[in-house]
User: Fold this.
Amino acid sequence: MTNTLKVLCISGSLRKNSYNTAALRVARDSAPGNMHIEFADLSQIPLYDQDQRDDAVPAAVRQLVEQVRAADALLFATPEYNYSMSGVLKNAIDWVSREQPQPFAGKPAAIMSASMSLLGGVRAQYDLRRAMVFLDMHCLNKPEVMIASAHERFDAEGRLTDETTGEFIAKLVVALGDWTRKLQAGEKQ
Ligand code: FNR
Assistant:
């Protein structure tokens, strides 16, 4: 029997019909029984302001910090905005990263991206990956899930209609589980 892994999904889009959030729902629905999937809510996180932080860390940030700390692994899905990750995601990462001990350090993590373009948000992934390196997350290398032409792969209700994309997402979730267990086993030695 393996222990259950807690995975925190973080979408970089606040849009109700977000393809990235929809991709995370597919990940949740395809996750094996020994993975428990939760979602972060970035919608109440204010713009980073050092003065505000010095006063008091906002409740929405504190909640996210607790969720990150409690998670065995993180699964990000980010839109690509002007060749970068979304400001929503970067802002949330910036807030969390100021806590001590730094909550992202040593966390196994994986990335997906969905975009209406033909490149599927690849540049946003590399942008996020760079921040993850600095934050000392352990980013899964492969499979890379970049959902191109997302508007043709999800229906109006945000349901995935493309089987191959579903298979890639399911593989990513399993690989993230394996990666997390491998890193946890290494820590115990
Ligand atoms: C975009 N979009 C976009 N797409 C892309 O492939 N490369 C890009 O650089 C950009 N830039 C960009 C900037 C801004 C400000 C917006 C609002 C949009 C399109 C974007 O990928 C598309 O809207 C996705 O559907 C957003 O993801 P969600 O909200 O569906 O998850």
Q: What stands out?
A: The pocket of FNR is lined by residues 13, 15, 18-20, 79-83, 114-117, 119, 121, 150 (CB under 6 Å). The radius of gyration is 16 Å. The mean pLDDT is 97. Residues 17 and 158 are 6 Å apart (CA to CA).
